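Page 37, top half.
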Amino acid sequence: MRYLYKNILLGNTLHAVSKEAYSRNNDHTEYHPHYEICILPENRKYVLTVGGKTSNVTGPCTVYLSPFSVHHISLTNNDTSFVRMIYYFSEEALKLLQSILPSDIPQNNENVALFPTSICISDSEVLFKQSISGYTTPKEGLCILALTINKIISSTPVNNRIVYNANESQLSEILRYISAHLEEKLTTEILANEFHMSRSTLDRLFRMYAEQTVKDTITECRISTAKDLLSATDAPIKEIMVKCGFQSENHFFAFFKSHTGITPNKYRQANYTDKFNLKQC
């Protein structure tokens, strides 16, 4: 299993995307620095893993995920494809909408699977299609998101929710810290001191909930951030290098190539676009 960090928003407040994936190819677990609402509109059997807790559920359902929560969604039957309608939105967007969102929206790193009525799912599909139509303004996109959240929360009684008590909430905070301090020197010892725990406790936390070492996680964040900035911005490579924690251009080029097989320049040439080809606000 691969653990992938990806900053999908890169300064935007909202990104809506429809994905169809084969479960057998869905071989990675994700975490990212923004909220996610994943609508699974089909009557299928899914496996949801969030923060080390795995549940077998039957759709349609909606999964509400907090920033830096480690999660994985697949089908119990790995040979078939499934559809996901996803909203990624920033903490800034949530603050802007706070006054018009329901009071029982998940809080404090909570992650929740919700099973609203079929009518609500149908309404959410209509709203989602409008959000990715290309005809909505950023403000309209946020309004659609707020309306979707209100519909899903209000039509899902408490006994139709699975709350993933953030077993890995401390891990989420550490992942958030790593993401915010990539320009700095980061080691297991530095993180252990920052979060007032022993190195062995920190290592155990990562192996239990992230199934990889602290060092591998830091490396993955640096490489993934470099990829995101190379492919979705026109920032100079020297600037990207510094943001990812490198002081030497030679070191950055060697490090990047050793993990991707190509240089940063060639990666940008192969992947750069002036904007994402999916609907964003």
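Page 37, bottom half:
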Amino acid sequence: MSSTLKSACAAVLALFSLPAATWAAPVTSTIYITVDNGVTNAIRTLNPLTGQFTLTCVFATLRGQVFASLTVGNAGTIYGASTNGNLYTVTTNGTATQLGTVSFASPGYFGLAYTGDGFVADNDASAPFPLYAINSSGTISSTIGQMLPSGYNNSGSLVYGPGNNLYLTASTGPAFPPNLYSVNTSTGAATLIGGLGTNLLVLAYDGSTLFGVDGSVTSNIPVYSINTTTGVATPVSTISGLPAGWEVDSAAAVPEPASLSLLAASGLLLLRRRRPSPN
């Protein structure tokens, strides 16, 4: 074995001998959450693994309104769907600018997810819950199909997660345990994955893990990681720093450059065998 290959093997063995904590799944995006206390609507960043969140800004407009959902489009643009029934582009300095003319009647939007060339959305104005398609400029909407039968209690969260699948949380009523569903974006039909074992959750996918935040409580708010095969939600942290009386309304993850790309590239370079030098 050449000295170059021996060095490469040693490097790979060293990587695999790192402590387990080193291999914990990294948060590959910045997660933003919107919160409200019945009067003020604010946007904050959340570290889901520790529960720590940081105030970014209070919205100067939309007082008394709630962003029922957030989603992220090209170049990290944040879009919000408000309970006033309108779409907005959202900045982290507290500016919300209405996008297009598509509007849903009260209680407005429940869920919103960016598709790459537009949005899918749902609302609770007319059960059974339909899935809608909206163009990227927010000017045209159409019904894709029915997600769930009448009688379901929909959290409104729609998020693209592992495998680019669309996920939804819902239950058959306040007294029934919530479930995780996958949604067929061609037909709108929601398919049961499994029980969350929690309250209904606000969803966010950071590129590695599907997280859920309990939006039904105003203190000791738990954050969960969700198994997208079984639907089971496992607690990972409790939100800290949010005053009592505030609740989480929506969440979205803004991608960051992959932190492991340089390490991966270095590993590949190590494993490449150099062409032998001429004698």
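Margin note: Confidence is low (pLDDT under 50) at residues 1-27, 258-279.
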